[in-house]
Design brief:
Layout lengths: L2 H24 L12 E6 L2 E2 L4 E6 L6 E4 L5 E3 L12 E8 L1 E3 L1 H11 L2 H4 L11 E3 L14 E4 L6 E5 L5
Parallel strand pairs: 1-10
Antiparallel strand pairs: 1-2, 1-5, 3-4, 3-6, 6-9, 7-8
Amino acid sequence: MSHRTVLRMNRRVVFALFACWLVMVGGCGYRRPQRIPTTGTLLLDGSPVSNASLVFLPAEGGRPAMAHSDENGQFTISTYGGNDGLPAGRYKLSATKLMLRERAQKRLDAFNASEAAENGGDIQFTDADYRNMLPARYSDPRSSDYEVVIEKNGPSLTINLSSDEQ
């Protein structure tokens, strides 16, 4: 093998190693925006709201974030999962607390007392079987009048919804 052939092979090897290094250092593919871990408390007229679903829709577009309040109204926001928070910015808020209507609850109670439930049976409900316990104006983030601003090192959120008609 000539000296030139060895030099060309060495250049190719060095180039290939450099390319691999660039991919490893620079990464490839989609990068998720930096998120700020965010917690808060959901209130209705000053009282904690348990078992509510919250959706945070970015005002400038992008992926929505979600949260679910616990028995004390406290929540942690996730955009991609694992309570990872959400990017800084302005968000429209949607809040719902769905409960079974009385007739659907009676159906569930009867089912739970039956042999079908004991034998692994299943019961299904439709959207009409549920009612939202929070004011309707908060149910859709596109029409909700409630906005939150997320800032780096910002305080925990206190979201105090009002049952008063506006």
